[in-house]
User: Fold these one by one.
Assistant:
Number 1:
Amino acid sequence: MIRAKYSTDMSDAEWSAIEGHIPSAHEGGRPRSVDMREIINAIFYILRSGCAWRLLPHDLPPWQTVYGYFRRFRKDGTWDKLHDCLRERVRVQAGKNATPFIGMMDSQSVKTTDVGGVRGYDAGKKVNGRKRHIVVDSSGLLLCLIVHIASIQDRDGARLLLEKLKSLFPNLKVVFADGGYAGKLVQWVELLKAFVLNIIKRTDKAKGFQVLPKRWIVERTFGWFGKYRRLSKDYERLTENSEATIKLVMINLMLRRFRST
């Protein structure tokens, strides 16, 4: 029986773009009986609707199966590889180099829930939870990500993020950030000898909201997160699952770009 279509379901073109990146069943084991396209559709349904795993509609695969593949592909790096491949394809499709030369960095503090896991209090944002620290390219596509407790200062969290960024993108030349990252972090990046940290500050005469060069790009990416209710808070017990969820949101966004072209 063919089920009713959800708005979060992949199109044929979207599925063909990622089908080849889905690992095959383990050799010597029981043949895979589940439809992997439906597994991905179920994950995208959770991302957009914000529902719990156990509340997946009955016409989608069992939640235990869906979560099992989510966890397995997170641990074996499938989501990371798929995300990076799509990002390169989207960049080339837009007439850019596959690998970027500039990035924009910022963080977002979000509340956690009662599922447990690490958390901390961000006194500046008055948020008890975690921080999503990201670097994006000039199109707002995710380059690097770390989720950590919200009590870690931006400058300290940025060190963890930029060390990871250096190993992933050796050709990166400049990373733009706001005034909250000014100070000792700039000197630390100079010692890193990987790229330049360019601080973009508001002018002293500015009043109210002001669009800052480059910085608005990473803010727009956080705005994209708002379209996915699963990211309204951090619902995950493990920060590794939090990072995988954000990667999957970006995968979904990039697949929609394929649809629009």
Note: DSSP finds eight helices and six strands in the chain.
Number 2:
Amino acid sequence: MPFVQFMHEALYAPGLGYYAAGLAKLATRDTLDHPGSAAGDFVTAPELSPAFGFTLAQQVAQVLKNHPNSDPNPNPNYTPTIIEFGAGSGQLAHDVLTALSNLDCHPTYCILEVSADLRQRQQSRLAQWQSQVKWLDDLPTDFEGVVLANEVLDAMPVHLVGWGADGSVFERGVVWQDDHFAWQDQPASDVVASALRAKMPPLPGYVTEINLAAQAWVGQIANWLKWGAAFLIDYGFTEREYYHPQRSSGTLMCHIQHRSHANPLILPGLQDITAHVDFTAMAHAAHDAGLDVMGYTSQARFLLNAGLLGLLPTLEPHQQRGIDKLISEAEMGELFKVLAIGRGLDFELKGFTQSDRRHQL
């Protein structure tokens, strides 16, 4: 089978896939507070410090409070709304709602989660917000508000492709051989081959990823986002960086028990499989679907623009732990990027007031 199908099954097969089985996938803030704990396979920004969610909430509030409904004749049926995709442990939702409450902003917070196990954890973590939080089984329609997707795009199945010696494009597949999974290449489809050819010239021996699923997902936002902004936060690069000649082995990585490696064919269903995000492709998908590309910058610059430094005096000492990793160029600060897309907004988003990198996309 093509690797893209293998990755989908390894992550999402009902009852067996990594995100569909009841595994302790995420290192939570509680486990991080106990040095030496090996719980979970990886840690996300919301678990490092509440400063991440508190700061993101400043940007969320700017959007929600500038809805046209704030005009002199408001619609009494309008409710400020947030939808988060892949909400993990629920920690980000908790922190965002906490900060918004302090800003006298009380939105409905919707979560669309594919993992039944994680949904249960979210419900427990967000019990105090039960009057505001609800879980969705399907995409919304005619949505107005803010969309949050933190480390969602990197978990979407990718086509693993490469250049043959004759300049042809192959797609890497997976076979069962001698009691283990092994690689087997085959000619790429016209769609996949064209996608790679549009990104770089032939480079025999070069292997990389094409994430058509993520591009389609971003484009589909235009079908239901009628007003508002979507903030896509993930690790990745622009197209020029992603398909650089020196990145000849691509970005595919696996995570298990806080260790990383590059072999997705072992431990299927027990380890996370991810690929970095080509943010140029995501921006093009949004633009082609009729959405505005409203900002693109590093996570560090986004957090600083959105008010991180102003929040520091309000944080308890233990809440400030992890902030250095959020903004350090050697940690998440530069590797993670924030892409904002939307529709109908006529103001500048505060998270991109300085060092907006849209010109690099």
Note: Residues 34-38 have pLDDT under 50 and may be disordered.
